Every structure is written in C-alpha cells, then in structure tokens.
Amino acid sequence: MNLNHLNLCVNNLTEARDFFSNLFDFKLSDQKGDVIAVMTDRTGFTLVLQSNSKKVYTYPKDFHLGFYVETKSDVDQFYTKLVEANIPTENEPGIVRNGYTLYFTALGGILFEVTCFSL
Fold it and tell me: Which CATH architecture has domain 58-119?
C-alpha cells in the first residue's frame, strides 16, 4: 500500500501553490479557481491544496510535513533557498534523531521538516 495523495487545507491558495512549486518542485496539474490546486511531485505523489476564504485553518502543534533528501548538501541547499526567499527559520540545519535536519514554519503556521539520514 502506498500513500497516493494528501489534501492540505491552506489559508492562501496562491501563496501555498507558489511555495510548493518554488521550494519543493511540485508541478501544478489542475486548479479550480481560488479553492483547489492539484500538484504532483517527481515521484507521482499528489498534493491537493484547498482553501476557503471564510475559514482560517490551523494545525496542532506537532503536525508537520516531512521531506527526505539524499545528502546533507541537499539540506544545506534547501536552507539557502529559504534564506533567499526570505522564509525565516528558527535554527540552521543540524543533527536531530540520527538525521541532518532543518525545521521551519511557513504558510501560516505549518511546520516543515527537511531531513537527510545519510550522515
């Protein structure tokens, strides 16, 4: 069994669509106005972004989206992309639970993790 897709509710569809496109290389497959954007990554995973202008979405404290990369250099390069995009991070990448990891918060409070386990 493989996880096929995720529906992520976001507060600003355009911001979220551009964020996933520019930082994580997701490609836009379809968009329905300012309500739904369907995106895919290079592995075929589908991310559905959904927004409702009448509702503010919040996630629990420990909810996060985790991305694995191949090398420590990939984590460092991602960190550089964040800095260049003026997306703040609380810390630089470092060793967390046997991985080289970067955590940051974006899109109105969603926690993100980028980790490499090849140390």
Answer: Roll (3.10)
pTM of the model as a whole: 0.93
Tell me which of 3.90.1170.30, 3.10.180.10, 2.60.40.1180, 3.40.640.10 is the CATH number of domain 1-55.
3.10.180.10
Q: Where are the alpha helices (DSSP H) in the chain?
A: 13-24, 72-84
- DSSP for 41-72, please give it: -TT--EEEEE--TT------TT-EEEEE-SSH
Amino acid at 20: F
Per residue of the chain (119 residues), give pLDDT as tens.
888 999 999 999 999 999 999 999 999 999 999 999 999 999 999 999 999 888 899 999 899 999 999 999 999 999 999 999 999 998 999 999 899 999 999 999 999 999 999 87
For the chain, the structural domain boundaries read 1-55, 58-119
